Structures are given as C-alpha cells and as structure tokens.
Amino acid sequence: MRLFTVFKLVLVLVVLASCNSTPKKAGSFELLPSPSSVQISGISSVSPTEIDEFVQQAKADFISGNSLPGSSDISLTLEVTFDLAPEGYILEISKEHIDVFAATEEGLWYGLITLGQLVQDALDQEAALPLISIKDEPALNYRAVHLDVKHHLEKKEYYYELMDELAEQKINGIILEIEDKLAFDKQPKVGSSDAWSIAEWKELSEYAMARNIRISPLVQGLGHASFILKHEDYKDLRDDPASDWAFNPLDERTYEVQFDLYTDALAAFPHAQYLHVGGDEVHTTGRGSGKSPLELQLIWLNRVSEYAESKGLTPIFWDDMPLKNAGVYGSIFNRNLSAAQVDSIWTANEPNLNTYVDMFPKNCVYMRWNYSMPETIGNNRAMRWFTDHGFQVMGATAGQTRWNLMPLEESNTANIRDFALLSIDNKADGLLLTLWDDDSPHFELYARGIAIFAEYTWAGNKRNSDQLHAAYRQRAFGSELASEEYAFINDLEGPVEFWKNALLDNNDRNRIRRLENPLQDAVLALPEANNPGAWTEKNAEKLAKVEEYQLAVDSVLHQISASKKAALRNTYRLEVYEQVAKVTQFSNKSLLLLSEWDLAKTDEEREAAKEKLLNLEEEWKIQLADLEKVYGKTRVLDKPDDYILDQDHHVHLANQAIKFADWQFYVEDLFLQKIKEGNSLEMKGDIQNN
C-alpha cells in the first residue's frame, strides 16, 4: 500500500489478469478539491456503472430528505461518535465493496461527492475504480462565494445549475449581493422591474440549502447606496445632496429604509447565517455634524449590527474605511515595506483606531478584503489588530475584480492561494471569494477561479497552479482535456488585457463616457493620406503586440476547437471562451488593416485596404450577433427599458448603458463610426463627434 499525501491522483492502473477476469484499463483520476489523505493499492472489481446509479440516487435522496439507499456493493454509515470533523468523511473502496463513513449528514454528502468524481473519471475513461482509502476534512469551515447580481441577472435555471456545480466543489456558503434585484415588499420603489420576488429567491435558497449551501444576503449601505438614493423618494437621505452614493447616518429614516430592505432580504434567504451590510469605500459628513468620518461610520455600524443581532444573525462589514480613516491602510498594499516600516506606520496611526475601539461592535465579522497582495506584512497586521481586540475577522479574496471580458492573472490563482493559506495559518473560520460583475464578463468564465478557491480553502497547498489548472480541466471537461495541449486559458489573458484599450489613444475603456467628445479625444487617431507610414511608425509598439497576439489567438482558437471536440461536458463554457477570443481578434485585425492602408504603395493597394476597413462594420454586426446568441443562452443581456442608471461613481462598464452591447462594446462602435467618417475625409484631419 502506498500513501499519497499530495493528491494529484493520477492512478496508472496496472493490468491484472486471472482465470475469471479480463484486463483492466488504466485510469487517470483527479479529485477537486484534493482530499486530506489518500492510500491506494490497486484496482477494485466494483462496477463504476452500477456505483454511478447508486450515487445519483443517494444524492437525490439526500437532497429530498429521504432515507439513503443501501446495496450489496456500497454502505453509507452515519455515526455521531466517529472521530471526524463536522464535514469530514472516510471513503473506502475495497475489492468488491465501498464504504462511506461520516459523523454528520454534511460529511456523508461530501463523501458521496468524492465518490461521484471517482466514478465519473472511471466512466469517462472506461477504467476501473481504484482500491482506495480516503480520510478527508476541510481546512476552513466556511468556504463561500460572492454572487453579484446588481448589474444583470442570469436566466433563472442557470442559478439552479450553479448551485449543483458549487456543491460538487464542496462550497458551503454564498453571499449574494442583491441590490435592486429583489422585489422589496416594504420599499417597492427600490426593486427594479426585472427583480425576482421574495418567493423566487426563497425557492433558490431552499434548493441551495438542500445541497449544504447556505445563502446569506449582502444589502449595501452606508455607501454603495446608489440603487436606493438615485430614486427621487430617497434623495433627502443622501449625505451629500448632489451624490447618490451614501446615506446620512444621522437621519433616523436611513435606518427605517435599510431595516425594511434587510427584513425582505432575510425573508428571501431564510437560511442566512450572516447579514452582510457592506460599509466600504465611503466617507460621510453627517451634513456638517462635526463628527469624524470614522465616528459616523461606527454609529451606523452599531445600528445595523444591533438589527442583525436581533434577528439571530452575525453582521459582516467590509473593514477598509476604519483603516483608511486611521491612516494605516497604505501599509496593507505595499509589499516593499519591511516589518520595521509597517510597525512605524502602525505605531504612529494605531491610536486613531484605538480611540474608537469601544465603538466597534463585538458581534460583527470584520471582513479584510485584499484582491492583490494578501501576503503583505501590513495586511497581516490589520487582521491582527482586530483579533487582538477580541473581534472576529475573515478574509475576502477575488476570482473576478475589474477585468473586462474574462478574469486575468490565471483566474487570480496566486491571490486566492495566498489568502487561503493565510486564513488557514491564522485558524480563521473561513474565506470569501468575491465575484464582481462591475465590468460584466460572462459568469461561465468565473468557473476556474471558483475551482481554485474550492481547492485551497478545502485542501490547503497540495497542488501547484499547473497541477490545479489541469485538475480543473479534467473535472470541468473530461480527462482528455487535462493534457497541456488544451491549456489555452492563460494564453488568452494577454490578448484580452491588450484588447481593453487597443482601439483607444492613451485612454481607459471604462472612463471614456465621461469625455465630452470621446470620438475625437479617446478613439485611436486614424492614419492620414498625406503622411503615409507616419501612423504605423507612431503605433509601432502597439502593432508589435497586435502581431504577437494575433498569432496567439489563432492558436487559442485552434485549441478551443479541439477542446470542443474532445470535451465530454461543459462545451458551452468553451463556446463562451471562443467568443471572447474572436472579440480580441477583431481589434487585432482592425489595427493591422489600418497599417495596411497606411503603408500602401499604390492607389490600388490603398483602395483595397480601404474597402476592407469599410467592411469591418458589417463583419462586427455579424460577430456581435453571434456573441449575443452564445451569451444569451444563460444570461439576460439587457436591463429593462425603464431601468434608471445611477451616477456611476466607480465607472463600472455594466452601469453605463441599458443594452449589453452598448456597455461592453461602446469602444468598437465609436471606432467603426470613426472609420466610416474617416472615409469621407480620406482619413485625414480631425473628426468631430456627431
């Protein structure tokens, strides 16, 4: 028997033969998340097909609350006296029998999920199940993902399928940022016309809970309150009458409104253990009250924490503003600071926090969010300040922040890993994975980040990033795609990052709607007929990137095509990646055509390039229609026609227009307009915005 403590369970099964058996095919098995410990010793004779039928029935019975089945091949044993963690289990596959042991129903559920993954890999490869012994438990108790629905909703069935997928990765919590996507009974003007009813959200909550996923709501305040304060009926509650961002924390009606929203949200999510109250990224004045911003925030935080406690819930609060107001926040986001430098900053400024320490509510979880460098000495120091003063603290990492089209930085692997390991080392209760929709990539492309989070929060540091990404591909698409030849996602990141501003002149896609004349002041200047070659020379660095990324994306598209043919499941996710790749290729092609026009040697060459440029508009219409067809399979693309956009304080692309294409591809529309108008002016001189 051989002990594997690092579970990259690639089990090459040897060929066995006897007078009564046929050879067994080799199999490759990848569990995700990795179990705590594994022992393997050979091949089982138990039929994967029969076990698959049993597992599916057992899961269905678990979900419905029925008695779990038994069979001659498998036993499920629930015994509270077992020395196992609350979600822990033991899984034994012997020559002719399978046993799953647990001390809790949740542990038995996760044992079934692990068995189901082994069976799926065996069936995928027509291989035998291994002789295996697993003892498993999570490194962190609370492993929650954040769903941000404020800018758009997916189609209803998609959320139900998502609950099933999260359960398979042993995720046990969701923080759902609801904003105006709940049809509030007590404050009906806040809910948008596409909002789900309390009953509809409650049904999803029940569905998730049956799979050991507890949904808790996030209802924004003190800041991030534009979804409320943009409405005429609530303008008197603004801290700044000209801004829809923040409530006045000294107005009693502020709490009447917020408590009404909480009440309806808790009715929609009846299994909540937390009430996330937000509280980040906001300075308030109290309308000249003379109170400090920190004091005002703590006045508000105490009121909402008292409400949560009265409902038997634990409030969660983003912790950034007290740290900013105290002057220690900068130390968190500077990895170049030494321990002595961090100590110096905190020694000088910590009294600003300590002055108000008695005002910090004790029942609150202070959520230390850090999406880029959780490993810094300053971040550790901030978390320690809360624990040293007897407060609960929990981390928040990110699978998606402000990236366009798709998550970058290997789905934020390093950040997720580092914050998970920090949380495990500090014996934290859990970790949250935020999945922001601010710039609205397709949610299918968040899946790899969720899998990475599931791995590190359950198992700790058992796989490196390459091993983990391969395991994700096998679980998501089938064992053949675990091969490196199908590892295209990271190769698409550079082209996507470049795409964001490729058609702009030193401007940012998110910010150009704030310009009076974005066509003239932001969109890339066109080459001029009377100065051939100058445009290409000026944009030489950008064009070098274009040529590099055009080749890279061609390769990615080839890999995606091969992946779609080889995948056994989740081919839709591959279709979404394919559309993202094609979007980046459109920009690359456009820039190369401009250079072709600019470098033309003859009138005939220039006219031919010009015709290709003018054809881009029709090509883009066809490409966009294809993309919307693919995206529209799972998501509601556009906001309701009557939707009221807010003041967009943080330049969220998804907050800048009603139609999906108008917020996601505004730049492409401007660029094509400039090409068309440039034609009439022979592509020279300034072009004024219509």
From TrEMBL:
An annotated GO cellular component: membrane
Glycoside hydrolase family 20 catalytic domain: residues covered: 141-335
Annotated active site: E281 (proton donor)
The enzyme's E.C. designation: 3.2.1.52
Any one GO biological process: carbohydrate metabolic process
InterPro entries: Beta_hexosaminidase_sua/sub, GH, Glyco_hydro_20_cat, Hex-like_dom2, HEX_bac_N
Keywords: Coiled coil, Glycosidase, Hydrolase, Signal
GO molecular function: beta-N-acetylhexosaminidase activity
Catalytic activity: Hydrolysis of terminal non-reducing N-acetyl-D-hexosamine residues in N-acetyl-beta-D-hexosaminides
Coiled coil: 599-630
Top class in the EC scheme: hydrolase
Domain Beta-hexosaminidase bacterial type N-terminal: 66-136
Presence of the UniProt keyword Glycoprotein in the record: no
Signal peptide, first to last residue: 1-26
PANTHER family cross-referenced by the UniProt entry: BETA-HEXOSAMINIDASE (PTHR22600), BETA-N-ACETYLHEXOSAMINIDASE (PTHR22600:SF57)
Protein family (similarity comment): Belongs to the glycosyl hydrolase 20 family.
Protein name: beta-N-acetylhexosaminidase
Organism: Algoriphagus locisalis
